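Sorry, explain these tokens?

***
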Amino acid sequence: MTTAGLEPIGTPRQPWGDAERAQWRARQVRRRSHVQDVAGAIEALRERFDVEQYGELDYAPDGRYPLLAVRSRNWDDALPCMLVTGGVHGYETSGVRGALQFLDAHAARYAGRANLLVVPCVSPWAYERVQRWNPEALDPNRSFRDGSRAGESAALMQLVAPLRGRFLMHIDLHETTDSDESEFRPALAARDGKAFEPGGIPDGFYLVDDSANPQPAFQQAIIDAVAQVTHIAPADADGTIIGSPVVAPGVIEYALGPLALCAGITGARFTTTTEVYPDSPRATPEQCDAAQVAAVCAAIDFALEHAGDARGPA
């Protein structure tokens, strides 16, 4: 791994131990404030929504990090539940901003129609350091499983557990960035003692459906909405996006459960992971945030429209 001109950590082809993980953590620098950017924005929503702290991460000596969720004020057990998560990877900024913008500008129109649970920033330590991993060099978005060692993942699963089986929709907001290829994939290879195999970064927005529960009409509704805001990623020459076959324009599939991905934690009928490309010369940061908001609104609208379907449209 070479990051920002630093020398590689560890010995090639040998997985990291505690010393290498500590060396990696020591290089992480706080670059922005979760308190100012996220907690402050959530606090401003308290007059309109119920705000709760569902946990706290003690990452001494860096500090303690509150985990914050926002709920519909008049929660009605008769209504379908919708989960929106952002910032599972702290460096993926538009997911955090998109979730907050959705709450501020659009969530009110679902009052009396759906219960909303929104977690704008699952990984506050990583948000401050513009990082993918938590301080233990663990990827939270590969850690949503029983007995998870990632505190971010374990806390979110505990928050969701009482409502599991009642969620109709879960949308998890992510980005694919140039730093995936220049920093995070090389770091992953180094951490795991593997050779780094260069890949490509798709130019545009795409979605990740659940291969065990594909919902193509749901994904298409989101793609159609986002296409009004920013461009959709094309398939590469092999007909893939990040190595996965494109099953519809801008859509690939992963096994969400076996891969321990966030979008697989609810058992919801409609699930998806968004992937915005903020480094595209064809998109601004504002467009990326707006794409996330458009995706959330389209996902909720589609789920509500098809809530009465026995299995959801194919």
Q: What stands out?
A: The mean pLDDT is 95. Strands lie at 50-58, 64-71, 81-86, 115-119, 167-175, 206-210, 240-241, 244-245, 251-254, 270-276.
